[in-house]
Design goal:
single chain; 515 residues; mainly beta; six-stranded antiparallel beta sheet; 38 strands; 0% helix; Glycoside hydrolase family 32 protein
Length: 515
């Protein structure tokens, strides 16, 4: 039978020791955490170490995601002149591994006539547009041109690059699609091989519709069909993205407000696409990409190698995006995720490149029982790390259980499971600085039946965010948090009865920030 034991682990690189949770049985191992350096130009409080954030100023939606000539390109909505929304232009960053990003000069800048809203980039390999040459086909950006005059019209325009995305020229024949509408935006374009033409998905935000167009040359477009309304319609529709995944097609549609955690969120539909019409699978209901508060406007990469479908969202929410307490930047991207379909449902996982950042195991537990209450597992995890665990109630009376991350000084972020409700949740009400916006503190929940083998969790903790992948990535929650940098303890908790820790591994990670 299990027996009580108390183990000590090194709590930090400074050699401070702290007791682990009193564990009944099981095995444990731990090694010291390593804190992020407090020196350097990019060591600002809350600066993500694992996620992309611009060196300064405002950012929102990712745009123009494409893998080209060995580099992952990230274009993004950007204000080159301030840290609040405005002067929308396309920022630009590149990476060879989806981890280490090099910020480049602004790619497509606003001017006196227009702001550059969201869109996509394609590699026009056949030079169908005539904007490149046979020897040097262009990258073509298709974006929403929002007029700065009183009309506020939104039209679709092109820019092109013949130097692998380093510099961009606006097409002299812009706009290429104009229906005289104020809400007509966010073109998502791809090559549809079966029909041998380009296909564009566009949002009609206030009509809760996605409209499809086709073109032979990226310059002349004709209407194919409309999709919607369907699913969630509690807010405007934005940022569509249509792509094949396995034997189905997936359509992402972002919604603001009306998300499950309030404010912004992204829903998805599965179905078929014949080159003209997207037909949804029957009886879908509303399906959310992420049940947290901070996963919005995400799209996937064009031309990703090895058939991968890589998804990248904006990690923020329009309820409070302009008030989060970061400086000199405001806004970050979520961690890149690889998508798959499992039994018709979207499954997500951090891209495998994350494993290259692993340095050491901070804590490893197997077959341990934690008593009712809250107990510390590690005194110092550092500000960013990866955690994998399988947890289960160890008594029929255990009503709530889970883990507290970024704990210290009276603050913590709880990742819990409510057995009566059958819900996984993140509780950030006591996560640190929550007073900058009344809409920020809260508990964000996702329905999830507890598997017989226990609740499997993969958690990515960064300086100012928590991303939770549960049930093999079938359920995800992403939340920003703003804890004190010293809040780095890890705890287990259980209400109503004990908690069974089948396995738990916490791993230290290297920072992905460039020096």
């Amino acid at each position: 039978m299990p027996f009580p034991s108390r183990r000590s682990v090194l709590a930090s690189a400074l050699g401070v020791t702290a007791a682990t949770v009193p564990l009944l049985g099981g095995t444990a191992a731990a090694t010291p955490a390593t804190r992020a350096s407090s020196s350097g130009a990019r060591a600002e409080t809350y600066r993500p170490r694992l996620h992309f954030s611009p060196a300064k100023n405002w950012t929102n939606d990712p745009n123009g995601l494409i893998f080209h000539e060995g580099r992952w390109h990230l274009f993004f909505q950007y204000n080159p002149e301030g840290d609040v929304w405005g002067n929308m232009s396309w920022g630009h960053a590149v990476s060879s591994d989806l981890l280490h990003w090099e910020e480049r000069p602004v790619a497509i800048a606003h001017d006196e006539q227009e702001m550059i809203f969201s869109g996509s980039v394609v590699f026009d390999e056949r030079n169908t547009s005539g904007l490149g040459t046979a020897g040097r086909p262009p990258l073509v950006a298709i974006y929403t041109s929002t007029l700065k005059d009183d009309s506020g019209l939104q039209r679709q325009s092109l820019a092109y690059s013949t130097d692998a995305g380093e510099t961009w020229t606006k097409y002299a024949g812009n706009p290429v699609l104009d229906i005289g509408a104020r809400d007509f935006r966010d073109p998502s374009v791809f090559w549809h091989a079966d029909s041998g033409r380009w296909v564009m998905a566009l949002a009609l935000p206030t009509e809760y519709k996605i409209r499809f167009y086709a073109s032979d040359d990226l310059k002349s477009w004709h209407h194919l069909s409309d999709f919607g309304p369907l699913g969630a319609t509690g807010g405007i529709w934005e940022c569509p993205n249509l792509f094949p995944l396995g034997d189905r097609w997936v359509l992402l549609v972002s919604l603001n407000p009306g998300g499950p955690a309030g404010g912004s969120a992204t829903q998805y539909f599965t179905g078929s696409f014949d080159g003209t019409t997207f037909t949804p699978d029957p009886d879908q209901g509303t399906r959310w990409v992420d049940h947290g508060a901070d996963c919005y406007a995400g799209i996937t990469y064009n031309d990703a190698p090895d058939g991968r479908r890589v998804f990248l969202p904006w990690m923020n929410n329009w309820l409070y995006a302009d008030r989060i307490p970061t400086a000199p930047w405001r806004g970050a991207m979520g961690f890149p995720r690889e998508l798959a379909l499992h039994e018709g449902r979207l499954a997500q996982a951090p891209v495998a490149e994350l494993e290259s950042l692993r340095t050491r195991t901070l804590l490893s537990l197997t077959g341990a029982t934690a008593p009712e209450g809250t107990r510390r597992l590690l005194a110092d995890t550092g500000q960013f790390y990866e955690l994998e665990a399988v947890l289960a109630p160890d008594s029929p009376t255990t009503s709530d259980f889970g883990l507290d991350v970024r704990t210290g000084g009276g603050s913590y972020t709880r990742i819990g499971y409510d057995t009566a409700a059958g819900e996984l949740y993140i509780d950030r009400r006591s996560s640190g600085d929550v007073g900058f916006a009344a809409e920020f503190p809260g508990v964000h929940r996702a329905p999830l039946a507890l598997p017989d083998g226990g609740l499997d969790l993969r958690i990515l903790v960064d300086a100012s965010s928590v991303e939770v992948y549960a049930a093999g990535g079938a359920v995800c929650l992403t939340d920003q948090i703003f804890p004190d940098p010293s809040a780095c303890a890890l705890r287990a908790y259980a209400d109503g009865g004990p908690l069974r820790i089948e396995t738990l591994t916490a791993r230290a990670l290297r920072s992905a920030l460039r020096a």
